[in-house]
Structures
1.
Amino acid sequence: MYYEMQYRVPYADTDQMGVVYYANYLEYFERSRTEMFRQIGMPYSQMEKEGFFMPVAEAHCKYMGSAHYDDLLTFRAYISEYSRVRVKIVSEVRRGDELLVRGYVVLGCVNSNFKIIRMPQSLVDCCEKCFYDPEADK
Amino acid sequence: MYYEMQYRVPYADTDQMGVVYYANYLEYFERSRTEMFRQIGMPYSQMEKEGFFMPVAEAHCKYMGSAHYDDLLTFRAYISEYSRVRVKIVSEVRRGDELLVRGYVVLGCVNSNFKIIRMPQSLVDCCEKCFYDPEADK
Amino acid sequence: MYYEMQYRVPYADTDQMGVVYYANYLEYFERSRTEMFRQIGMPYSQMEKEGFFMPVAEAHCKYMGSAHYDDLLTFRAYISEYSRVRVKIVSEVRRGDELLVRGYVVLGCVNSNFKIIRMPQSLVDCCEKCFYDPEADK
Amino acid sequence: MYYEMQYRVPYADTDQMGVVYYANYLEYFERSRTEMFRQIGMPYSQMEKEGFFMPVAEAHCKYMGSAHYDDLLTFRAYISEYSRVRVKIVSEVRRGDELLVRGYVVLGCVNSNFKIIRMPQSLVDCCEKCFYDPEADK
């Protein structure tokens, strides 16, 4: 299933066009995937304690609408692909039913020396809990 | 031709992994395309005075290496595609010869009411000046 | 009385010292005073619709401890002084009972042309609801 | 003497009021004091290699004017007070001759375990090079 959380847009996130600055959506993606990982039992801070990190290898955003100051947004995150070496997480930002931004990040897995490693099986098992295929849901 | 500028990484841009936080590269892309537009004779602030805006429709980043605090980075920007309705700008971040991040943004064109419009011919003409095809350069 | 809200520290807010970067506390202050104004019946977005703005004239932060990634912080905000021309808002950041940062901002009042004006009486009346004197509370 | 550098305001730094968001000035202060420390022969990255850090204990900003997108600002930084345990650095932001923001930070000195220590004498010696008293300059 997917994970959802809400977020109130502060002044800090806007730019002079009166909308949320485009780079901030990548911060929004981080907030939602952090909470998603927490919910599936693998908080990111625990990963770091266990000695592995999940750096972003790739990020993508498609901007379909604009969020404004004080909007109460809904962030959705889910895992669309995963293996022992990478996880692809889709993130969506909505205001009510309106989809404003959709994107994804691809995370790799490294140890504390930034050497690429395979993900622990415990993490792979957790991924299943937030695996979601929007097509299958229709 | 492409445009290049330099940038010193401040503490503000780093995260606790000791590297530049991934969303900040989209700010870096903005800095380099702003200067690119200025250099080709179409500063972004002038576009806004003339009543058109270039919102980001799509953004993409591929992270191949990490930038660190106090690194002196080189930002490269060039136009890889353009038409009357959109411009695709490639952005690259290097430390010395090492390519750390490559990405692109696709800009549309809107008027002050956020209605999609065709780009003024004057802007299209400017785009030619920073059009660049890395393949043709080899 | 004072207003309180909670906030989870994202990776985006940390720096390479492994703590929240010092400038981010001013964003935290904004988040808490926005919610405080909403709670006392004068949401900031409504102020803007009514044609007045409350720019920051002065800001101060005292850093006593460090917040870390994934900390669940408590932001407290209250009005310590107010008149027809300015409002002073104290902001505090705690992790549990530990006070990490205390600061304040002084807000003025301007119209949409950035001309200084007196605050509407309706806003002044609202200020009373979040007026708080920590000394009197002891 | 004081140190000065220039900075071009990106879109990222603005908010929907059309001006630089107030927290960003603390990032500007960091940029200017980093370059100031580099110029006086004690780059911050070298301090960290030598095992000491200079966390911010206090920060203050007074906002007298607004910076806008694409403004070419001048950042000035100088040391107004220093001892073995703390350094006070004044930062000013100007557009041409117009002083927009003045503030200061007070830095302490800690080791890599965040224990407060005395500054190395070599750093204290460097401080003299950027000590400046605006009153004495009149």
2.
Amino acid sequence: MHLEVSNPKLSPTNPPRRLLLGPGPQNAHPRVHSAMALPQVGHMDPGFMFIMEETKSLLKYVWQTSNRFTIPVSGTGSAAWEAAIANLTEPGDVHLICVNGYFGERALDMHSRYGAVIRKISKPDGEVFALDDIRAGIQEHKPKLVWLCHAETSTGTLQPMDGVGDLCRENNCLLLLDTVTSICGSPIYLDKWKIDAAYAGGQKCMGCPPGVSCLSFNDRAISKLEKRNSPVASWYLDLTMIKKYLDVPTGAVRTYHHTAPISMIYAMRESLQLVSEEGLEAAWARHKDVASLLYKKLSEMEGFEMHVKDQAIRNPALTTVRVPTDVPPDQLIKYVREKYEIEIGGGLGSLKDKIIRIGLMGYNARPDNVLLVIAAIKEAVDAIRGKTTTV
Amino acid sequence: MHLEVSNPKLSPTNPPRRLLLGPGPQNAHPRVHSAMALPQVGHMDPGFMFIMEETKSLLKYVWQTSNRFTIPVSGTGSAAWEAAIANLTEPGDVHLICVNGYFGERALDMHSRYGAVIRKISKPDGEVFALDDIRAGIQEHKPKLVWLCHAETSTGTLQPMDGVGDLCRENNCLLLLDTVTSICGSPIYLDKWKIDAAYAGGQKCMGCPPGVSCLSFNDRAISKLEKRNSPVASWYLDLTMIKKYLDVPTGAVRTYHHTAPISMIYAMRESLQLVSEEGLEAAWARHKDVASLLYKKLSEMEGFEMHVKDQAIRNPALTTVRVPTDVPPDQLIKYVREKYEIEIGGGLGSLKDKIIRIGLMGYNARPDNVLLVIAAIKEAVDAIRGKTTTV
């Protein structure tokens, strides 16, 4: 048979150059790119399993957990989230979803797909939950699982965690924490905070390209998994099977489940290695210091207001900003991308066309990037206003 | 709070060197590694969407399909498979699974997770289905979907496809084809063969590292998706949502779903580019020629027998071999890995400890690799026999 679909005859892959100062992904450190180019090995190779174990130990460090079951997940952050839900939900379980932004809204959908009975408590975009809010929600709905977002990527908040873990234990429910945009950028103590399950993406403050994520279950979560009455609804994300590949006693036989994303594991391993070399507390401090510089510069610009008023609940890695009313955010974003190849983010969900989002994460959390993005934004505002007046 | 989980203080990422001549992954072409190190861009960036569209057009070429909905999937091959099932299954649908190896057995499990009523027809490991077998299965079970494996990675067979598509259309059922280990290595004509849905991994003959996969739906499959009564059971793999991100008319607004694995898309784009530069028919011919050389060399070695007797149904990319009875396959595999850093595969499922699997795929499908692996196997056999006689 001859070919009916013709050869498209394209040129080699050639992406544009961008400085990524939006909500993620971020530019990775050159060493991470080099790690991705290291030789492929097989997913059952003892040499690869050694790297996998190293990656697990680094994940435990940055999450501050001794959870044995702390693993990379073969997909982007949403896959790790879905893995947590698929494995910790049995049809009919009540889940209390704490909604204070776009990702909370998404949780309502995602958790319901696995048969959870959804209950929610809500806070306006840009606010966080008080312990009493969560207590009232738990007492009213008696959930089996509470989903809480540590860092809402759509709003820029950072949820205070004091007392939440104890509250969930007292009420015999699991606490599932989204740490996608806080891991490696802000203090997280999974064990001290008594988090039962957490997940994260690699492409934010960890400094890894997107394509791999991570998950940690403590004994309470593992117990829920082991006592399931129904099979896990997803085969790809079935942790009872993945456990036999990724979490076996030293020297025991590992069972093939799916082909791991080798190069992305290298990338995550090397991103975490960079955090380890810097020191976790130093990485947290760097994100905070760079954010402070950004806040200072923004405070000097007329018409720019912090969307999250209270600095104590701001995620230093991701700053949400209301811009002057005569400056459409999409025009500003387009200007800095087209003129300077800088990506900053727009609003998501209810904040669409209302804010810009400036991410200073991982390798990109540096003071030079603050100077640059502020200068570019200033020029964009002038240009947009100039254009407006000449129309 | 101070850190309780200490810094593991490891060295930089350092995988072993391996020549991967097993069932996959394979070593990628150096240009593919370089592509992974290209600058990160955002997943909503117009520059990235351009690369995504290029990747889609290259996928159409290598699958020989004009299916508009031909996309990369953000996970390994099993994720693309699960995406096909999750989107094409409604609870209670009868699925006819054609089982002739380990992956057929796996299908029974995977499809059942999505509520399919499982019916199966079986052939022994190393055989393929005759059209009459499939016809009888369809007439008996009246399925809504037939799952068939084009290239069974556990056994090394290649399923003849003549008439299967017509048969499914006549009986008003969808045909889902697994092309994980045949894409880019053996002729596939999705359109001419009337395949309704197909999926593949990138890490076999396409020459991409694992971590990204692909999926194609024709209009019949899209129609099934659009007429669903129940929501897609997986959020991460929900193609009704992914469609709004990946498959929109030129110039239309794309809707964020999840963060795409940017570097892995570059890798897939560049792997496909290499196939395009070589020419698809030349790539098919190269895999076939290299396999013929391997068959010839193996035929000269006493006690080595082809597991798939009939050359017409052998997958050239993956050769399954029964080794002399006094040579345990696991010892042979260990010897060539430890002495020469060459990976060859063992048997899976019912073929465990019975065969070895030699993959010559993508960049590794070269005659020099045949000479090398044959020489290494010969030495391993001598060494194992030497050891045995001295015990």
